[in-house]
Amino acid sequence: MITKLQWKTYIIALFITASIFATVILLSRFATDQKIKAIQDAQDSIAIDIASSETQFSLLSELTCKNIDASSLSQELRSMEARIQYTEANKLTNNEELLKLKKYYFLLEIKDFLLLRKFNERCGSTAVPIVYFYTNDCSDCVKQGYVLTALQEKYPELRVYSFDYNVDLSALHALLTIYKVKGDQFPIMIVGEKIYAGLKSLEDVEKTVPIISKLAAQQKVKEASSKIKSPATTSPSTKK
Amino acid sequence: MNPGDYIYGVQTVLGYIFCFFALYVQVFLLILLFRERKQIIKGTVFPENVNWPAVAITIPCWNEEDTVVKTVNSLLEIDYPKNRLIIRVIDDGSTDRTWERVQVFQGIENVYIMRKENGGKHTALNLAIETATTEYVGNLDADAFISKDTLKKIMWQFLSDPEMMAVSPAVVIHDPKGFLEKAQDVEFNMFVLMKRALSSLNGIHVSQGQFSIFRKKVFDDLGPYKNGHQNEDLEISYRMQVNGYKIGQCHDAYVHTMAMDTLPTLYKQRLRWTYGFINNNYDYRKYLFNPKYGTFSLLSVPIGILYILSVLFSTSLLVWTIGKTAYDAIMRLIITNFHIGNLAPSPSFFFVDTRPIIFISAILLILLITVTSLAKKIRGQRPIPSISFVYFLILFNFIGATWFWKAFYNTLISRKEVVWR
């Protein structure tokens, strides 16, 4: 039989345990809020940067291409993407908040994409945009994500703009209409106006996508020439 | 919601439930220890001129030729009036030279040797109880020995509390060496501490077979030892608890036992313990989780169940996570044509895991270190955590899952009991 005095111990222990739990949940909540706020701040600063680049473009149509740097923005966008993915995978925030973050992010991506295209037209840069559509319930999309990350690491010229097909955003709908994307087979990649549907391994992409085949060939040539050069400079025979 | 989300949700909820109860148990134990701190530090103190009662100690043996003589000798050397201590060696049909060895005690006053057909440990103990003439009975396994003052300290509890029906000692590992023995050393120290804490609410759920002393009245009232799924000590303790018989513990009355020194013997021992625990709980199910039967029913047994379930849960989760990570890594390598990218983790605060479960796990770990350090202090060792704590964590939180799974398997499917050694 549990006496009254004993029950007291049970209740005190429950109270202490619940207090520890509540404190921990509050602490964790605080840390998460800080993270979400960090994303929002970064998004705002990217928005300002994009707006500033756009304004530069329209103000000075005669601007020399040297004065505009289109690469730094994409870097920031890419690290933003990792954060949003992490937020989604670890359920750091509720669905509404997450959707807001994603929409804002996609909007920034579309703006950056348009800016890059303008820049390419006018200044003929080497950057290659890839537009990529995924959905959350497609297992091949996870794999395609790995391939795209690897591609970006291998060819720094590539800029991947990835979009969740199911997010209801009018700008995204417009993009889908322009490229005539039908949502029947995911993942979908658009490289140089051409649509590639279904999973493509790194090897497939290097073989079947002309622009990337070209990049791969260029890199091979570069590697080969550096291989020829390097032993020559270090070999003892040349020192003599 | 896709199946992945569903699994994630169930896993998260279960994780929090386990964490909550684990934290509750640790807080509960610490409150009890804090309350009892003065008595614990003071230890057992008794006056000089006590009229010590007669006790009969049984040493049941089955193929113990190497250790039995040493065990009996250790009993002969303890500090207790010689004419009040009766030692009974019962050879439970050994097939080795045990019987030959114990002949050296033939003719020694107060040492009686007996031989019977093999029938299991509980039958040897029952034979001793049936023929006992003393008010107190106890037993000592042939692989253990006691400190000189152990018996007096235990008996003092009976003398100072007429309601006390059984007292269990502090079983500690003798001279632990190596990974397995050091892990068991930490574990046994924890048991001593936990039982000391729970005894203050009469919540001891097992008065283990190594030198627990009982009033003979317990067996006269409640009947003899039963097999109890090869855990006769657990079964008699449950029977005592549900009948309202008080069980005490003496945290400074030491019994030194040999640790299991190989993984197979440890596995076999723990399989027997776990199997016994599960099946005795099943037999006594209507007395569990019921405040009518006290802390034993509402806390002590649930702690054991929670421990087993949480180990099974966390190891399953670990295996699943390792498997998934390995699968992802291999798939990633194949699909990217073995491109090895930037593997260094991002140094940003953003990617530091700040889920509540991480904080709670950290708190649980700190509390566990505290409790094991306190357990060392109670034993008179320096309360500083050592590498043994890590061994303990690995052995009883991960490797332990193997005997837990097997015990469940044996219970549900093969119904196979493990023999007593």
Continuous helix count of chain A = 8
Order of helices and strands of chain B: HHEHEHEHEEHEHEHHEHHHH
Low-confidence stretches of chain B: none
Radius of gyration of chain A: 25 Å
Span of the ends, CA to CA of chain B = 51 Å
Please give the order of strands in the largest beta sheet of chain A: 2-1-3-4
Mean pLDDT across every amino acid position of chain A: 84
Shape of chain B: elongated
Tell me the fraction of residues in β-strands of chain B, as a range: 5-15%
Task: Summarize model confidence as the mean pLDDT of chain B.
Answer: 92
Q: Main sheet of chain B, how many strands, which sense, barrel?
A: 8 strands, mixed
User: How would the global form of chain A be characterised?
Assistant: elongated
Question: How many beta-strand runs of chain B?
Answer: 8
- Could you give the count of β-strands of chain A? 4
* Class per helix and strand makeup of chain B: alpha/beta
Tell me roughly what share of residues is in helical segments of chain A: 55-70%
**Ranges of chain A with pLDDT <50 over ≥5 residues?**
232-240
Verbal overview:
The complex is a heterodimer of chains A (240) and B (421). Chain A has a four-stranded mixed β-sheet with strand order 2-1-3-4, sandwiched between helices. Chain A is 69% helix and 9% strand. The termini of chain A are far apart. The C terminus of chain A is likely disordered. The radius of gyration of chain A is 25 Å and the shape is elongated. An eight-stranded mixed β-sheet of chain B has the order 3-2-1-4-7-6-8-5, with helices on both faces. Chain B starts with a helix and ends in a 7-residue tail after the last helix. In chain B, α1 packs parallel to α12 and α11 packs across α13. Chain B contains 13 helices and eight strands. Helix content of chain B is 54%, strand content 13%. The chains are: A alpha+beta (240), B alpha/beta (421). The interface between A and B is large, with 36 and 38 residues.
